[in-house]
Amino acid sequence: MSFPKKMEGRLREFYFRGSIVISEDLSPREKRELVAHAIGHHLLHAGNHLAMQKRIYSFGNYHEKQANVFAACLLMPSNEFGKYLKNRPRIDEIANSFQVTEELAKLRLMVWANFEKDITGRTAKAS
Q1: Does 64 share its domain with 124?
Q2: Model pLDDT for residues 26-35, shown as the tens digit of each residue
Q3: What's the pLDDT tens digit per position in 83-120?
Q4: What whole-number distance in Å separates Cα of residue 71 and Cα of residue 53?
Q5: Same domain assignment for residues 11 and 46
Q6: Is 55 helix (H, G, I), strand (E, B) or coil?
Q7: Residue 3 phi, psi dihedral angles, 5° rounding
Q8: Could you say which of 41, 59, 75 is where a domain stops?
Q9: Rounded alpha-carbon distances, angstroms, from residue 55 to 17, 32, 38, 44, 50
Q10: What is the tally of structural domains in the chain?
Q11: Sheet holding 13-16: strands in order across?
Q12: Residue 45, Cβ neighbours under 10 Å: how many?
């Protein structure tokens, strides 16, 4: 379950008692991404839900990067993403098509280019 809530300061989302709480003043795309991001933390980092460095949220934190990649892949699945790329879309077109931010679309493209595409440009087959 997720629900929006008024939040102060830099806090945008948190996981509390089985619910994902997101800031109500975010765009629909940001809300989608934060829910997917929080699910990534829940599945990948059980027992490590709060990642802080020197009491300041760090985008560079390894767990945050993993949750971001999870969100990108969840919201832009490989099959659909690979097919969509055949028309060589711009980043804004990718973001609009999948209803995500351009930042997440760039991350998904980087993951696809480095880990899912073989040297010929075709999507690599899972072994």
Answers
A1: no
A2: 889 988 998 8
A3: 999 999 999 999 999 999 999 999 999 999 888 876 55
A4: 22
A5: yes
A6: coil
A7: -155, 150
A8: 75
A9: 22, 26, 19, 22, 11
A10: 2
A11: 2-5, 19-23, 13-16
A12: 17
